Request: fold
Amino acid sequence: PASVDLAAGVSSDFVKRITSCPTTVQKLTPLLPKFGFSEVVDSAKDQESDSKNVVDTLISPAFQHALSSFCSAFPSGQLGPLVEQFQFGKDAIQAAQSGNLEAFLTAIQKEADNKTQEPPVEKPEDMNVD
Amino acid sequence: MTEAEGSWCLMESDPAVFTELIKEFGVKGLQVEELWSLDAEHFERLQPVHGLIFLFKWIGPSVDSSDSEAIVTDDKIFFARQVIRNACATQAIVQILMNLESSELELGETLRDFKEFTKTFDSSMKGLALSNSDTIRNVHNSFSRQQIFEFDNKSAPKDDDVFHFVSYIPIAGRLYELDGLKEGPLDHGQIPEGKDWTDIVTVVLQDRINKYSENEIHFNLLAIVNDRKVECEKKIAALEATGRATPEKILELKQLIEDEESKRHKFRMENVRRKHNYLPLIVEFLKELAQQKQLIPLYEKAKEKCETKKKSKSKSST
Reply:
């Protein structure tokens, strides 16, 4: 089967919908490119600007390009060793080694479903701002 | 993630990349701007223009047979033959920098040393020295898109990015074309008295563009110009020194400086984005999508989109 490019579905509407969830923003923020400009660092506590930074990155040509390469490289199975670094379960790693993107994503979904039964991560104390 | 020893990555031809690239070489007082057309007014806005880089999709050796007649040998011109692939972007800009006559320009240590070191070399040796320069190569490579996957290159379509960069520059009153794939500098003749070299080069470029069929070729034109911010600051200083400063004039120049600063900020952001390793983000993104139960729907949607795209493509090609 031909490779599917996930970037084709990552539109700005999609990204905005996804980043309306504070936990998602919180998880993705540390992995964004670091600009090291004072104004960005200063506002880092601000949930709103965090979410904007995540959106800006996910819709940037650079990220979209990286996601496309990820998808186009996936069927070769050579992403297996790279994916292993990220604490995936057995099924996901196997799918990555065999180059099956659909099976890989299905395995990630299953892992997530199993995890939701655990207690949710405690939210940071951002309620008493103002 | 590692590039093979000595290899050069493909680089994007973008003013942000070039401006930062020359800055990291240590060059001071210059920046790179993109030109969207050959209209005189676009050049006017950027004057003085020191050199141009013309980028186009390479379609094999030039059809222009008259080239050989105009190729010159002149020790005073820095010319390096291109000996390796993918370096032509850097090669094109280095060719221009090495030949600049502007006194305001500071080449910086790296390029100054390189110029000195290669002074007596012939053009092939210069090209070889350029491709073997660790400093220049490292700066160049730091601007390629992060290769998160070592085999990224192999999986890329074969036909893409056969782009070639050619430099145009005035040297001692004549217009030269420096193309690393040619034997030597190409002399386009004397720049007539009272004319700016850009008046001549636009004619040459237009001719060149006309030779290619329109829809097959991508063009891109970059200009090496003075640091725009410094230029504006100098103008303000000059106006104030001579007492000709009006509030409107100063405001206008200050606005230009501000625009330039925000543009540079954007450039820096773009370059940081370009150099980032996105693999951890991709992985976390997929996990988060799974948390929100959006992962499989995204896959299905993307699959559908890729299929319709393929269908419409095969339709249009038959």
Remarks:
- Strands of chain B lie at 30-35, 49-57, 163-171, 174-178, 186-190, 219-226.
- The CA atoms of residues 49 and 225 of chain B lie 5 Å apart.
